Amino acid sequence: MADAVRRGGGTAVGVTSQLGSRAEAEQALAEATGALGPLDVVVHALVDPAALVAAPLTETDEASWDARCEAALRTALACAQASFVQLRDRGGRLVFVTPTVGLTGAAGLVPYVTAVEGIRALVKSAARQWGRHGITANCVAPPVALVAAGAEDPGIEAPALGRPPATRRDVAPVVAMLAGDPGHFVTGSTVTVDGGVVMAP
Amino acid sequence: MSGPLDGRGVVVTGAGRGVGRGIALACAAAGADVIVASPGENGAETVAEIEQRGGSAAWVRCDVTRGDDVRAVMAAARGRRGVHVVVHNATSRRSSEPTRLEDLDGAAWEDHAAVSLRGAYHCARAGLPALPRDGGRFILMTSPAGMEGSTMLPAYGIVKGGLRGFAKSLAREWAPLGVTVNVVSPLAETPAMIAAAEQDPGLRPRLARRIPLGRMGDPEHDIAPAVVFLAGDGARYITGQTLVVDGGRFMLL
Predict the structure, then answer these.
(1) In a structure prediction context, what are the per-residue pLDDT tens digits for chain B, which is 253 residues long?
(2) Can you state the percent helix, strand and coil of chain A, rounding each to 5?
(3) Which of B102, B104, B118 to mutate to test the interface with A (most CBs of A within 10 A)?
(4) Is B169 an interface residue toward A (CB < 8 Å)?
């Protein structure tokens, strides 16, 4: 990925990390800043594909519950806390990818959707607590099929715009908006980018 | 006692005090046999109060973070009237500790996740075999912190937000079975709130100013009636919803 960015004329460094603990997340961001200089934006888009394999909750054992739900929450929390260390004195932007199944719910995905809604609440508390540090925190919600091939949304309606979104063409610009100047006063929000399927009240 | 929950068995976790105790009292008053699932002796106090009022209840000592404990609760209920309704209300004892998100440590997070999230998981897994098809009820508790974030209680907000995702998904999953799953978002006078108000006399008026109805709810008389409604026949076409019972504090939906 870093190579692709460089081929496109950008600057990038790849850092390998499980983000399994706060220490690991802090280490990963420290490596990134060591290579690139201070951070302005952290986008947390990590999704474990195993969390998106549908299974009834009653057939989900405790280890699987942890892997598909609580591990995702621990990782998001570690990422947020490590980001704060980098951004507390200079401000910055946090963007979390939270598929629209969080808003709609999805049969077979109880553990993962629990994590998604937990992350949306995490982002709102981060927005409230860290606003005075000049940090914004928001969620971008694409269809779940975009973050894991084969995963299915409840499919309430067809997209109003006639097709599902593509990551680079449709979703990435919204992340860039939230990360850039136009998004500077948006915080605690969830922006749905699904072509008009889910429309919140 | 007789009422809309006549003949039903209702399991309530965290029913030793606060909102859970209020739910237990109200369900018993509505005719249910209540299984008070609580890790501490205060579960027996809730049962004594119900019995003194002429209701039916039993206390089963239960740590909801342990699957074996939750299965034992369901077994005890099946030995009485059965399990028609499960209300997972228990939260971490650390729920009311103000925390900065950056200072939230692993142990505090683990306690919040274990009681609220893993507790919900255990209640659902152990509860479904006992819940009646076409009529079973599974009810969870969320909070304003879970819907709009919190400046004081970020860990509590995360798990309470998570429970809404849990409920919406489980509602879809269990809908073909005729078992509904809903959430109640209370704003209530809890023991922790009352203790905090004793330390800070300005707290209650400050909170009340942000509540259109001008006061915090009473667990038994303001919050629990909504749970009794969701548990009853009148709510059979409602699933996956969050019923906000907070004096008008949250009106975004």
Answers:
(1) 789 999 999 999 999 999 999 999 999 999 999 999 999 999 999 999 999 999 999 999 999 999 999 999 999 999 999 999 999 999 999 988 899 999 999 999 999 999 999 999 999 999 999 999 999 999 999 999 999 999 999 999 999 999 999 999 999 999 999 999 999 999 998 777 787 788 888 888 888 899 999 999 999 999 999 999 999 999 999 999 999 999 999 998 7
(2) 50, 10, 40
(3) B102
(4) yes
Tell me the CATH number at B111. Answer: 3.40.50.720
Examine residue B99 and state whether it is found in any structural domain, yes or no. yes
Domain assignment present for B50: no
Task: Tell me, yes or no, whether B199 lies in a domain.
Answer: yes
Structure tokens at B215: 């006061």
Domains contained in chain B, number = 1
Q: How far is A58 from chain B (nearest CA, A)?
A: 5
Strand, coil or helix: what is A5? helix
Question: ipTM score here?
Answer: 0.96
- Burial (0-12, 13-18, 19+ Cβ within 10 Å), A54: middle
| Contact across the interface for A70 and B117, Cβ inside 8 Å | yes
- Which three-class secondary structure state does DSSP give residue B12? strand
For residue A32, tell me if it sits in a domain. no
Domain count, chain A: 1
In a domain, A31, yes or no: no
Instruction: List all residues of chain B from 92 to 111 with a beta carbon under 8 Å from chain A.
Output: 100-102, 104, 106, 109
Size of interface A-B (CB pairs under 8 A): 142
A19 within domain boundaries: no
B169–A77 CB contact, under 8 Å: no
Domain that holds residue A95: 39-192
How far is A8 from A51, CA to CA, in rounded Å? 32
Is residue B20 in some structural domain?
no
**Contact: A84, B102; criterion CB under 8 Å:** yes
